[in-house]
Amino acid sequence: MKKFEQLKRLYRTITGYMDPYDFSDAMISGLTADFDRLFELSWKSLKEYMRNDLMMLDAKTGSPREIIKLAYRENLIDDEELWLGILKDRNDDAHHYKNSAAILYMGRIMDLYMDVIKKLIERLAELIPAEILPDSRVPGSFAYKYRQHCPQRS
């Protein structure tokens, strides 16, 4: 499942740079935006698994809320209320006009939500065979050509 592979890759990326002591605008903005994408991949991975592997017709056109409820019913996730809380936070993230609200969201991401996503990844890894996707690194030849054509910054 392509979405599941993307989910695992983004999770590794976020855990690689997450810093609980960095409250810079760049960290807040980057972490919350990346987590919003991570959550999107999470519920869509659940939807894809339930639709394709479990043949659940209910999962075909479900909203995030409906998919979370179905996943809980199918024992794919443990805490329905926490997942619905993540959904609410994700939806509210676009309306964080105060830095303090974004910092609180970032705290919940690091303290609670990343562990929930990790549990989901572990659960789905038990159920979904690993898929080998091509590496997404930029080839060295591209980087060389880019450096040749771009002016050097002083």
Topology of helices and strands:
Elements: H1 2-17, H2 25-52, H3 64-73, H4 80-93, H5 99-127, H6 140-149
What's the CATH C level? Mainly Alpha
Total DSSP E strands = 0
Helix content: 55-70%
Q: What's the architecture in CATH terms?
A: Up-down Bundle
Radius of gyration, in Å, reads 18 Å
Question: Span between N and C termini?
Answer: 45 Å
| CATH evolutionary superfamily | Nucleotidyltransferases  domain 2
Give a description of the structure.
It is a single chain. The protein is mainly alpha-helical and 154 residues long. Helices cover 69% and strands 0% of the residues. The longest helix is centred in the C-terminal third of the chain and has 29 residues, at 99-127.
Q: Could you give a short description of this structure?
A:
With 154 residues, this protein is an all-alpha fold. The protein is 69% helix and 0% strand.
Features:
single chain, 154 residues, mainly alpha, Four Helix Bundle (Hemerythrin (Met), subunit A), 0% strand, globular
